[in-house]
């Protein structure tokens, strides 16, 4: 199947019904972000760590091997990135510009430095959980919720560790009692 026909068939399935107003959807772990032009997977929802409304992007800790960081660096004088040094991110398959990688940044965007920043307008997001394909502009990352989930995960891990320790102690006691009987 050619790239052009694959793109149009997938793009035709982008869900638009029920998209009333500027409603946004939170990124979940079970989603993949694909190049809008050729549908190559660029990043996974589990690597999302930030969304920025001013720059209209989603930042990721890691991206797929199909994302290329452009060789040259740029110095920007536009209002949003004034004083920043960055390289463009390109889709490795169709070479479309899909984002940027900040090397040096002013205070307002310094939290995005060394993250893979993907432009929302450059991606489609497929949710493996709901099996829906949606436009990247509809998604955001909720850092507070992520921190809460990490806290819950930490508690769950501690609880599991405690149960394993209890089981190990029971096994140890049973081994000792069976040795004493011999």
Features:
Metal Binding Protein, Guanine Nucleotide Exchange Factor, Chain A, seven-stranded antiparallel β-sheet, elongated, metal-binding, 2 domains, alpha+beta, 182 residues, disordered N terminus
Would you summarize the structure shown here?
Its main location: nucleus. By secondary structure, this protein is α+β, with helices and mostly antiparallel strands. The chain has helices spanning 3-12, 143-181; strands spanning 25-26, 31-35, 41-44, 48-52, 57-60, 67-69, 74-75, 85-91, 97-104, 116-119, 123-127, 132-135, 139-140.
Would you give an account of this structure?
- With 182 residues, the chain is α+β, with helices and mostly antiparallel strands.
- It has two domains: 3-141, Metal Binding Protein, Guanine Nucleotide Exchange Factor, Chain A; 143-182.
- 27% of the residues lie in helices and 30% in strands.
- The strands form three sheets. Strands 4, 5, 6, 7, 8, 9 and 10 form a seven-stranded antiparallel β-sheet that branches. Strands 3-2-11-12 form a four-stranded antiparallel β-sheet, with no helix packed on it. It has a two-stranded parallel ribbon with strand order 1-13.
- It is elongated.
- Residues 1-22 have low confidence and may be disordered.
């Amino acid at each position: 199947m050619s790239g052009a026909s694959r793109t149009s068939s997938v793009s035709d399935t982008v869900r638009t019904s029920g998209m009333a107003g500027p409603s946004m959807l939170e990124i979940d772990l079970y989603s993949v972000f694909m190049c809008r032009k050729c549908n190559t997977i660029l990043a996974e929802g589990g690597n999302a760590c930030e969304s920025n409304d001013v720059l209209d992007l989603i930042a990721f800790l890691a991206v797929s091997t199909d994302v290329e960081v452009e060789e040259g660096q740029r110095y920007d004088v536009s209002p949003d990135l004034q004083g920043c040094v960055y390289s463009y991110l390109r889709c490795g398959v169709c070479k479309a510009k899909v984002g940027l990688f900040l090397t040096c940044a002013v205070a307002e965007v310094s939290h995005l430095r060394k993250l893979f920043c993907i432009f929302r307008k450059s991606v489609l997001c497929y949710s493996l959980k709901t099996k829906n394909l949606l436009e990247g502009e509809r998604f955001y990352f909720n850092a507070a919720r992520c921190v809460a989930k990490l806290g819950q995960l930490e508690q769950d891990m501690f609880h599991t560790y405690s149960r394993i320790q209890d089981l190990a102690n029971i096994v140890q006691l049973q081994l000792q009692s069976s040795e004493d009987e011999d």
